Amino acid sequence: MLAAQLAALPDGDPEGVQEALALVNGLDDALVHGLARLSAERAEAPAALAAALAGTPLGERLAESSEKVASGSVADEHLTALAGGRAALLGAVHDALLADLDAALGRERAPWQAAPEPEADGAAHLLGGARSWLRELAITGWRGVDHDLVTAADQITEALLAVPGRRRLAVLLDGLAAELRACCPAGTAERLPVRRWADLWTRALLLAQDGAPPGAGEPVGTVSGRLLILGADVHEHATAVQVQVHAVLEPADGGRARLVRASAAAAKVDTITGPALWKLLHRHRVLLGALTDRRAVDVTDLPLLGGGDLVWHDDRAVLGKPADPFTTARLLLDGALAPAEPPLDRHPVRIAEPVLVEGYTVTADGSFDLDGTVLAVDTERLPSCGPLTPELVAGSTACVGLVRWDGGRWLLQPLAVQAKVKRQTTAITTGDWALGPTDPKVVKAEARAGDAVAVLRERAGRLLRR
Amino acid sequence: MVPPVQPRKLAKVPFVELADGRLQGVVSSGSDIGRVYVSSIASGTHAYNCSTNNNRPCGGLYGSPCKHLRALAAEAVLQYGLDRVARYLRADVPEGADLVDCLDGSHEPAPAAMVFSRFLRHLAYLEVPDTTVPIPELHWFPAAGVRR
To answer: Are the Cβ atoms of A171 and B2 closer than 8 angstroms?
Structure first.
């Protein structure tokens, strides 16, 4: 990302974003106290949402739903319509923001290509269970959530986790339930993550629709070629971890290079943290090896989803020649074709565009100053399973990272930096410890703590009824 | 959002949680690898209980918390930090004091089976197969930050 590109990124929100977010806030506020106790003032929020979307295909259903909800009758279909309206607004905010970012970066994005409809997976009754829990939440409101209501989610997530195609919903519900449990009873809590919980509730309700496709949709095709890694983004909550590798794919048929992601996710428990997380993903040895050894990967016939995600098969990948993420970013990032975002996934939180930033000075608060334009750096997202620290970022001279939009502003999430370590300019990345930590201090601390995964597996082997 | 827990050795106390109005968990028996103790301390009253997973009372409860309860409290402090545990239990812990010495409850029966089944549920996560199908929803859950 050049200074001129950053300067071209509008400072303020795109037109209409403030108004859209105001409508979203109204609905979110109604969810704080619950739809069962809508005061006259809060009852206007669903109506305002319906009015704003009156000219869209959702308009009619929203109008009916907002009336019903205001009159105290809350059925699944009404909540679904409200969730759909809220998601549509945030999808539009996503589109406007991403269009600004693409224009500033000069990035070309592929048009959305719908995949064939997947077959039903017989999980309908489980989805119904999830919807009724979400309805209880909406009726009760965050302030009214008690231990019993939170615990009711356990059985639902347990059953959903057993169905491979419903992993997304299971992981999402588990994350939401854990946050509600930690705040429970929330009746007196001073501040609640109102927008966040409404986001999670909305997405969960959409994923719990009978027509929601299993998994992340069907592949649009398969690809072969050379994968050049830019960096690894790590996601985690108490019972899940996901590593999402951003890379440039050079197709074997000589076609245009494209931005892709490869993901690996595992279930876990809260006491497995830090470098031990990688052990949960040990089956994907080629992917982890490519991160640690900074190598290219030659892939054959990997399914590609419409959103630019490769479905990783370690046995269709072979480690290639050494490949430095900074070289990849310098040579290939500008010309690579970016993927379309699947319509249902469009939400500002999903914006994570790989960029290379260099030629900056680091300001007192850790932001990067590019010729007078300042880009804030989000060091909170540096994962505990890698060697990248806020200090290394602050002392860096080049950075490969993801541009995100959070809290109403653009941020850079570092994935790799070039920094001076012992007077040598070295690259340090979040994926360096994918095959185990290399820092002697961390290795020692890990050895002291013992192998959490092994201890729990031993306990599971002995105590779980089989 | 949920504050991340700190890593700790899991061999002695594989499971600790603050839930359902109790600090509760599972302590592995020192003498029999097939046996575990279910220990709990209630928030507010500080009533405590310790029994095997088959509901036999722990032999170490003589009018004061047994070694399993002491281990549970100590590991909870490592995992969550003293502040969070003391706040949850509503206990006053003067500086330098041990949490377990600042509790003023007595032994009261508590449901061990439920805690044990929560522990089994916890372990069952490790049996869930990994996946390479992306989970876009996890973008709402960035990795727990570095604390080195």
So the answer is: no
